[in-house]
Design a protein that fits this description.
mainly alpha; globular
């Protein structure tokens, strides 16, 4: 479920299958499923599937008792569930129009950055904050306990790429000029997809064939 959430979170790659006036190097992903955009139902379906998988995975890992123990691991799983809830709200409350593309649309910033002119910006920010919390907490758990060893090297490398792209977005958003914010966001979200797939693999591996020492965390 965790890996599938990551795969479905990459539905934006379908933008390359059909013509669009949006420049992938400069447009935000939230513009793909803006109200009245062609093919928006495809992207919304991808986000809703992502949400359902993430929330279901969190429930399975926590109820009736946590599969993994320790504060960092439980925090990661709870954050995964919160990411799912935020993403489904994000999909169901899109931006109404795209400045410069839709006639009569006011020239306001749109996308995942915390510019709270629209509820969509808030839900997007919550989703990104939640997945970052999950990634950091799971990585801490991997280093502290030995659980999810795949996250210590491969996952940490991908997380580093995500952090760099996020800094790129946050810094460039406050500067004038063309800094390819669309490209930065696509690298960020693509990295999140890969990281979730790695985490899903790590969870399965820890439950099969890694021994009792890796199947449960201690608080130590």
């Amino acid at each position: 479920m965790v890996a599938l959430a990551g795969i479905c979170y990459s539905s934006w790659v379908l933008e390359f299958l059909w013509p669009s006036p949006l420049d992938p190097f400069r447009s935000f992903l939230s513009e793909l499923d803006a109200a009245h955009r062609p093919h928006r139902e495809v992207y919304v379906a991808g986000d809703i599937t992502t949400s359902c998988c993430a929330m279901l995975a969190a429930v399975v890992l926590l109820v009736p008792r946590p599969v993994f123990r320790g504060f960092p691991a439980i925090t990661a799983v709870v954050a995964l569930g919160t990411f799912g809830m935020s993403t489904i709200a994000d999909a169901l409350m899109p931006i109404e129009c795209i400045p410069g593309v839709d006639a009569g649309c006011p020239n306001e910033p749109s996308g995942i950055l915390p510019q709270l002119h629209h509820i969509h910006a808030l839900t997007s920010t919550l989703a990104v904050f939640s997945i970052f919390t999950a990634m950091i907490a799971a990585t801490v758990a991997a280093y502290r306990s030995g659980t999810w060893p795949e996250l210590r090297v491969v996952g940490s490398t991908v997380l580093g790429v995500i952090v760099v792209s996020t800094v790129w977005m946050l810094a460039a958003d406050n500067l004038s000029g063309d800094f390819r914010l669309g490209l930065a966001q696509r690298i960020q979200v693509g990295g999140m997809t890969v990281w979730l797939m790695i985490w899903g693999w790590a969870i399965v591996a820890s439950r099969h064939g890694r021994g009792a020492g890796h199947t449960r965390m201690s608080d130590g």
